[in-house]
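S1.2 Input.
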Amino acid sequence: MSYGEAAQGVLTRVFEEMAMLFAEPADPAGATPPVGEVLEAKIRFQGAQRGELTIFVPTETVVEFAANTLGVDAGDIDDQEAVFDAAKELANVAAGQLLPEIAGVEQVFELTPPSARCIDAGEWAAFAARAGVAALLVEDAAVLIGVEVIA
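S1.3 Output.
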């Protein structure tokens, strides 16, 4: 199993178990870029292996994730900082579940604080074309996830 496939499985579980959002695997080449704003959430790790986990996710999906996780209405999540925090938490939880899966539970990793920023359509297309990037459809919205590991 590739890192991208492992990340795809982990992110599916995170969306479904934490936020009750239905997620299914998709082809990154066919993943249509979202119409609205898209965020990049990234977290770096080092230990037995080092690298980074990157998620491209529509802001609307992050808002749904945050609202469902917190048990509030999506309309209550209207502060951009709160949306960025939710995207960072998504990356943090995904990394925390992914690293033991790809390296074993005995390994210890240090994680950097996650980051989040807005991206444009060109960045989406370039990321989708990278080798090892996987995709999900979360409630019919495309999400991209990639893991870069440096030995």
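S1.4 Remarks. The chain has a mean pLDDT of 91.
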